[in-house]
Specification:
Radius of gyration: 21 Å
Shape: globular
Number of strands: 12
Helix content: 25-40%
CATH topology of one domain: TIM Barrel
Distance between the termini: 37 Å
Low-confidence stretches: 411-415
Structural class: alpha/beta
Largest sheet: 10 strands, mixed
Strand order of the largest sheet: 7-6-5-4-3-2-1-8-9-10
C-alpha cells in the first residue's frame, strides 16, 4: 500500500461565502475567496480525492449551500463512492433544500448550535439564527437525513451547556461534536470570550456529567481534538473503553483540509500560511500528499522525532511521546507555533497541584485574514492570588443545570 493512503477523511471548504458573521469564525467567512475553484476544477478534485483513497468528505463553508453548484459537487462525491456530509450554520435550509440534499446523496449533516437563543444569535452575529438552526433540523428530519450538532465551548456558551444539550436532544440529534473555541480568525479579535486554562478545572466535571447524561439518552458525544488530554474524565469523554484516549494529532495522518481556492492542508483548521502544502491548480493531490512537508509533520509519531517540536510544559509532560502536544491547531493559534498546548486538563490539574494558575494574554494581534492567528503569552501566578476583574469569567456557579438533573450525580470517572 502506498504512503498516500494514510489519509481517509477530507473536510472541504467549497466557498468562504457565508450568511452569518460569527464572533469565533476561524476563517473570517463572509465574502467568497478570490479565485475559488470552478465547477470543472471542483469535480476534478472529487476524482482525485477518490483516487488517493479518501472515504468520506464533509463540505463546509463559509456556508456550503451558498455555492450554486454545491449539490453537483455533493452528487459527484457520492457517485465516486465516497460518503458526503455537510456542516452548516443552518440559516436558510428550507424543506425543499433538505430534500434536494437527500437526492444528491448527502448522508449526514451537522448543524452548529453555540448556545441558547440569545447567546447563539450573539455569537453567530444574526438575530434569528438560532431559530433557523432548529428549523433546519426539522427539515432534515422530514427529508430523512440523519443529523447531529456541533458546539463551540467558550465563556458565553459554557454556562448553558447542559441546557444546550437538552434542546438539541429534543430536536432529534444522534451525535454532538464539541470543541473549545480557540483564537483563530475572528476569535483572535474577541479573545475575551475564550476560556482561561485554569477555568478548565471547573469546566471538565460539567462536560463529563453532560456526556454521561447524553450517553444514557442515546446521544453520542464526540469530543473535538482540543478536548481532554489525560484528565480523570478522558476515557468517558472519548467513548468509555480502555483504548479511547487521546493518541496525538492526526493532521496529515488521517485527515485532509481543502480551502475553496484549492489550497491543501493536513487539517482543515490549521492556519493557512504555516500549513498549506500546495494547491491543486499547481500539483496533483497525490503529489501534495506524498511530497509536501507541511502535510508530513506528524509522520514521526512514535519515534524520538515525534517530540522534537515540543516546548514549555508539554516538553516535560509524562504523556509527551503519546500526546505530542495535543491539537496542533490549538497550540499554534495561541503561540504561533505548535508543541505547547494551554488547553489541557491534565496540565491544569498538575499546575494546580503545584499551586500554579495559568492565564494567557494577547501579545500580538492577528492580521485580519482568513485562518490567521495572533500570539499570546502565558502568565504563571499563585493559584489563589486575586484575579483581575473579568465580567465573562467562567465558574461552576454559573452553570445552568436543569432542575431534574440534581438527583443524578456523575457516577463514572474513568482514569
Amino acid at each position: 500500500m502506498t504512503e498516500y493512503r494514510r489519509i481517509s477523511y477530507a473536510v472541504w471548504e467549497i466557498t468562504l461565502k457565508c450568511n452569518l458573521a460569527c464572533q469565533h469564525c476561524g476563517s473570517r467567512a463572509g465574502h467568497t475567496r478570490s479565485h475559488e475553484l470552478s465547477t470543472e476544477e471542483a469535480l476534478d478534485l472529487v476524482r482525485q480525492l477518490a483516487e488517493v483513497g479518501i472515504k468520506e468528505v464533509t463540505l463546509i463553508g463559509g456556508e456550503a449551500f451558498l455555492r450554486p453548484d454545491w449539490l453537483d459537487i455533493a452528487r459527484a462525491i457520492t457517485d465516486a463512492g465516497m460518503i458526503c456530509g455537510v456542516t452548516t450554520g443552518g440559516y436558510g435550509i428550507t424543506l425543499d433544500t433538505a430534500q434536494k440534499m437527500k437526492d444528491a446523496g448527502i448522508k449526514v449533516v451537522s448543524v452548529s448550535v453555540d448556545g441558547l437563543e440569545a447567546t447563539h444569535d450573539r455569537l453567530r452575529g444574526k438575530a434569528g439564527s438560532w431559530q433557523w438552526a432548529f428549523r433546519t433540523m426539522g427539515h432534515l428530519k422530514q427529508a430523512g437525513i440523519p443529523f447531529g450538532c456541533n458546539t463551540q465551548i467558550n465563556r458565553l456558551s459554557a454556562p448553558e451547556f447542559p441546557r444546550i444539550y437538552e434542546k438539541i436532544r429534543d430536536a432529534g440529534v444522534f451525535a454532538w461534536q464539541i470543541q473549545l473555541t480557540v483564537p483563530m480568525g475572528n476569535a483572535a479579535d474577541n479573545s475575551e470570550i475564550l476560556l482561561q486554562p485554569y477555568e478548565l478545572l471547573e469546566l471538565y466535571p460539567m462536560l463529563a456529567r453532560v456526556t454521561e447524561q447524553a450517553r444514557r439518552e442515546g446521544v453520542d458525544v464526540q469530543p473535538g481534538n482540543n478536548i481532554g488530554y489525560y484528565g480523570p474524565y478522558e476515557r468517558l469523554l472519548r467513548g468509555g473503553d480502555a483504548w479511547t484516549f487521546w493518541q496525538g494529532c492526526s493532521a496529515g495522518l488521517a485527515a485532509l483540509g481543502i480551502e475553496a481556492d484549492g489550497a491543501i492542508k493536513g487539517c482543515p483548521s490549521l492556519p493557512t500560511a504555516a500549513y498549506t502544502g500546495g494547491n491543486i491548480r499547481d500539483r496533483s493531490l497525490r503529489q501534495i500528499i506524498e511530497e509536501a512537508e507541511e502535510l508530513r509533520f506528524n509522520l514521526g509519531a512514535g519515534t524520538p522525532k515525534g517530540t522534537d517540536h515540543l516546548w514549555g510544559f508539554c516538553k516535560t509532560c509524562e504523556f509527551a511521546e503519546l500526546c505530542r502536544g495535543g491539537c496542533s491547531w490549538t497550540a499554534h493559534v495561541f503561540f504561533d507555533r505548535r508543541g505547547n498546548n494551554p488547553y489541557c486538563h491534565h496540565r491544569a490539574l498538575k499546575q494546580a497541584e503545584k499551586g500554579i494558575r495559568e492565564r494567557f494574554y494577547l501579545d500580538r494581534p492577528a492580521a485580519g485574514i482568513p485562518f490567521d492567528n495572533g500570539q499570546f503569552a502565558i502568565i504563571e501566578e499563585p493559584f489563589h492570588s486575586p484575579l483581575p476583574n473579568d465580567p465573562l469569567a467562567f465558574s461552576a456557579d454559573a452553570i445552568q443545570w436543569p432542575e431534574h438533573w440534581q438527583e443524578k450525580p456523575l457516577v463514572t470517572t474513568l482514569n
